[in-house]
Amino acid sequence: MGKQNCRIVYGKTLVELRSSNNRIVVLEADLGKSTMTSLFQEAFPERYFEMGIAEQNMVSTAAGLAISGKIPFVNSFAVFSTGRVYDQIRQSICIGKVNVKIMGSSCGLSDFSDGATHQGIEDIALMRVLPNMTVLAPVDGYETKKAIEAAIDYEGPVYIRLNRNEIPDMTSESDKFLIGIPSVIRQGNDLTVFANGYMVWEALKAATTLEKEGISIRVVNVSSLKPVNENAVKDLSSGMKGIITVEEHSIIGGIGSIITFILKGWSVPIECIAINDQFGQSALSYESLLGYYHLNEEEIVKRVMRILK
Amino acid sequence: MPLSEKQIKDLELTSRNLRRKIITMIGPDNPGHLGGSCSIADILTVLYFNRMRHKPSDPKWPGRDRFILSKGHAALGLYSVLSECGYFPEEELATIKQLGSILQGHPDMLKVPGIEANTGSLGQGLSIACGIALAGKLDKMDYRVYCVMGDGEIDEGQIWEASMAASYYKLDNLTAILDKNKVMATGPITERFDSNPHKEKWLANNWLVIEADGHNFTDIDNALEEAASNTGKPTLIIAHTVKGKGIPFAEGKAAFHNGIMNKEQYQEALALLKI
Fold first, then answer.
1. Domain regions of chain A by residue span
2. Which residues of B touch A46 (CB under 8 A)?
């Protein structure tokens, strides 16, 4: 199984798609070597705008470009491209349903060393609450490419969050990606785990561990966080002994909120694994930070056992 | 070419109409952004009736000059001029701020023909105008982009981000107009929060800066003409204006930023603006 860095896939995809779509422009706020829009700058310097360390202007400028027919991608770390510019996204983009694509790079805890200031763990909640916004969190490199393509094909604001680190492939090149549709990564019939991003990988590891105990876990990748096809979530939950949600995000406003809301009134037990209303911190490795916040295989196994007890 | 006497007379008549529409839309005993709408009425008149290339019958005409009202709370001024141009029927003005009306409290690009962007959260319009101007450069279109800001609005940090970006990208197709009416919602800017000196700040950001009397049609028109022929950098026109201009009891008064006219004041204003 291969690994890919979604940021590099993103940069390459922009270059590839720009070759056949001259509406694409890219705006950056001095993080191009990290968001990997530097690849686009090398290929299409005349369509790349370094806006300086001034994210608010970057976002509203992108609105002006989109109003004029361009498809602008604005870039920063997830924490800044949602929080720092929340009002610009709301006012300049969402109310008018303006066709801007917002990249949230180094999302969640994936920028493990930089600490709370740089760890975007509220971005999904902030973007989901905005009318007219579409929210995507591709699970791996293959899906990153398809999510970018889908965002371009869709006319309207889209927020895409991407992990900073190397991510194992969990889908294949031939898998379909549709905005709104959760996808089954692994079949199972005892419990369903709804996850997104790197947490899908932890869920797959947990499913392998639990299989040895005779417990069959269905792993669902909810990479489209808005819209979410409610019937699909219900179908994938139906007949299960329990439901687990797991996300590298605050417990407020992410996948836990989404799934429990869709399944309101069901008698099935639901366990939500997320960051429990607190900020992140620095760590020397991604795994140790995820472990500190219980965002890993071990916690998923623990919660499954709690439900089955 | 300087404005002829006939042109000036026509513009005067038009700006009078705009102010009458502004007053009528507010009506008696209702709050409305009288001050900042009336301070830009003459600027809007010159832009839409003498300077801007536009087709009210085809609001999305690609070759049109673009106008962004960064100080979106002066929507009444913009609605007045758009209706005067024929972008929508005059009867719509009577529906202002009613449930379901196209005429929202702040401009809505999805609802009103001729409105280019949603503004109202202050400080964002100049950035949007920069984006439209950049697109014009990319597409090699020769349209111009106009953006009106308030002198209270430019307290917003985003304005200064946009100010730096516009000169860095040499947006000479952009003309920003500062409606320097000197009064913010809670009082004179010199007493509340003084963002002066304006000219020096924009010059330092490498803009061409022109000062004009924002209620003198010839002055406004000359400044716009100079801006249009300026190359290599964006232009700021500092338009010296009076908040509530044309409505004597409201002139220069913060109380009429979003104030209420009583019935007598309303009748007085309408009588003054009768044609």
1. 3-168, 183-302
2. 138
